[in-house]
Automatic annotation (TrEMBL):
It comes from Mycolicibacterium vaccae ATCC 25954. InterPro entries: Diverse_substr_monoxygenases (IPR051260), Luciferase-like_dom (IPR011251), Luciferase-like_sf (IPR036661), NTA_MOA (IPR016215). This is Nitrilotriacetate monooxygenase family FMN-dependent oxidoreductase. Gene3D superfamilies: Luciferase-like domain. The keyword Transmembrane helix does not apply.
Amino acid sequence: MSVKKKAHLLGFVQHGVMNHASTMWAHPRDKVGYHWSRPEYWRDLGRTMERGLFDAMFIADELAPYTTYKGNSDPVVKFAGQCPVHEPASVVPIVGAFTKNLGIGITLSTSFVPPYMMARQLSTLDHLTGGRVGWNIVTSYSKSEFQAMGKENLTPRDKRYEVVEEYMQLLYQLWDSWDDDAIVYDRENGIFADPSKVREVDFQGEFFQSKGRHFVAPSPQKRPVLWQAGSSDQGREFASKHAESVFGIFPTPKSMRAYADDIRTRADNHGRDPESVKLIYGLQTIIDRDKSRANDRYAEFVENVQIESALGILSGHTGFDFSTLGLDDNVVDADVQGIRGLFDAILEAKDGAPVTVREAAQIYGVSMGAPVAVGTPADVADQMEQYLDDGGCNGFMMLATDTPGCFNDMTELLVPELQRRGRFRTRYPGTTLRESLQEY
């Protein structure tokens, strides 16, 4: 009898009024008794995920309102289309203080932060959480972000990956520059560390130069867990070389499997154990003990989608202005400078059949193109098992609908069903995020 593959679960949220379901902030079930910007919300969200033995809370980010749709940010401001979004790293100490095992993954762009500062920030956060920080490595792709940072020229995709490759090499040198036994804590002689075991980094690259010692003592994980969501050819190559966990959105088991096989082949080509790279796919769930109630709730969520808000976000994510098409026009392939995988997820949403702009908005507004599992805990678990076995993934990035309610449903209804089937852990394996991700 073959051993069943167990799932990893991560809660996908954002430090803003909206997470990843368009106009959900206006739904009467959303954030009842909470304000998304207050510590109490993040405290209880973290506690709920930890009660459900989630690997981590994963916090997405943008750096400026999207302006791709209609050439301005009015639609996303009007409908709170991932606007406003507050800074994500500030949440880490709050969640970390009220949890013991839950990892916290944050999205930070390499485009505007010097590597030396990035290394320092992430090492500090790893210390504050006792080794539970992960970093979603992104390179900014939005014109509005570059303009907000005082830069007029958007870096082309090919160039972005050249730059971030060098960025990572410098980070590795900084994180690894302290030997494990460098700190001696000799109180009697007043010696804190052995300077011979704390190397000065002298990095002279094409894009970055840095000379100095890493300013933070080695954190519990030494390096944060590295996440990436590469979907273009360059992105896949980068992810397979650097990432410990790769996030993707794919609408079908066939597209999931193709991506998983490709990433693992590339990882093997880089001399890595392919199974050490965890494939985590986006999934939206609507769970209720009563299937008809789950279906009714899903219908409400679909009806709640505001088309212009969804198109503002979709245009911002992909870099393609969907206002140039009519709502009943079919979406056709295009060379996009934004997130290639999200554009592909829309093209593939109906398994190869044409998708209109209106349909794209509805699909994206509900789940960003990720599959949606609706029904009883058993129904949802059935669908997850198919993705684990046929889709080749290792787990799921659970997209939020109404919060914190949807994560209560996952913790109280779905997790026990997965445990009953031998598909999910019954305890945490250790205290660090890396231990949780590498458990199975």
